Amino acid sequence: MSLHHYPPCRLPDKVIGITSHTDGLSLTVLLQVDDTPGLQIKKDGRWFPVRPRQGTFIINVANILEVLTNGAYRSVEHRVLIHARKS
């Protein structure tokens, strides 16, 4: 289990949140605790924001599940951007 928290940052363009990556295990379960944006996924070479909805879960397929399903379920490349005013 891991827990990530990003405090507000006055210079979000100069700080790395979590760089582009895929997750290593089978599934990642992410709880959206509020409406702060930041999570993005990559599809067809472009980054798309994941619109936060408070109280919902986001489930990412990770690398091991992709291997076990022979690519039927693909691991999702994603990143997190820092916000200037919200935590």
UniProtKB/TrEMBL annotation:
PROSITE patterns according to UniProt: FE2OG_OXY
Pfam families linked: 2OG-FeII_Oxy
Family annotation (InterPro entries): IPNS-like_FE2OG_OXY (IPR044861), IPNS-like_sf (IPR027443), Oxoglu/Fe-dep_dioxygenase_dom (IPR005123), Plant_2OG-oxidoreductases (IPR050295)
One GO MF term attached to the UniProt entry: metal ion binding
Keywords: Iron, Metal-binding
Domain Fe2OG dioxygenase: 1-87
PANTHER family: OXOGLUTARATE/IRON-DEPENDENT DIOXYGENASE
Protein name (Swiss-Prot/TrEMBL): Fe2OG dioxygenase domain-containing protein
